[in-house]
């Protein structure tokens, strides 16, 4: 059994496209899901210590117990938890990825943007 981990928005519209994408992307059977409203904003701003600790604790469980092989952070169109425009959300995703890379230096970590058609796009560091 192989796992990866996603830090995803709680919005049900993004769940299945993200899971399908990550199963292919990381060649895994299972995707552990950590969901919050607007998680890329939470991780990029790092203002809510309680939420940050909660996310990191759940991530640690996935990485240590399920031996997760990769991590993804998601932002999406029409997000109630992060209603910023796409350009700003991309910055939030990049900052969130950089924050997680400080926690897990040897782990592959990527950012994903889900567009208005619920299609998944991987975010480059320079996007």
Describe what this molecule looks like in 3D.
There is one protein chain. It contains 4 helices and 5 strands, in the order βαβααβαββ. The protein has a 5-stranded mixed β-sheet. A hairpin with a 5-residue loop joins strand 4 and strand 5 (120-123). By secondary structure, the protein is an alpha/beta fold. The radius of gyration is 13 Å and the shape is globular. It has a single domain, classed as Beta-carbonic Anhydrase, Chain A (3-Layer(aba) Sandwich).
Strands, helices and their partners?
Blueprint: E1 3-9, H1 12-25, E2 30-36, H2 39-45, H3 49-65, E3 70-76, H4 86-103, E4 108-114, E5 120-123
Parallel strand pairs: 1-2, 1-3, 3-4
Antiparallel strand pairs: 4-5
Helix pairs in contact: 2-4
Approximate shape: globular
Mean pLDDT: 96
Low-pLDDT runs of 5+ residues are none
Please give the count of helices: 4
How many beta strands in the DSSP annotation? 5
Briefly note the CATH topology name: Beta-carbonic Anhydrase, Chain A
Percent range for β-strand residues = 25-35%
Q: For the CA atoms, what is the radius of gyration?
A: 13 Å
Strand order within the widest sheet?
A: 2-1-3-4-5
In CATH terms, what is the architecture? 3-Layer(aba) Sandwich
Span from first to last CA? 33 Å
Order of helices and strands: EHEHHEHEE
What is the share of helical residues? Answer: 40-55%
Quaternary structure annotation: single chain
Largest sheet: 5 strands, mixed
- Please give the domain count: 1
Class by alpha and beta content: alpha/beta
CATH homology group = Carbonic anhydrase
CATH class type: Alpha Beta
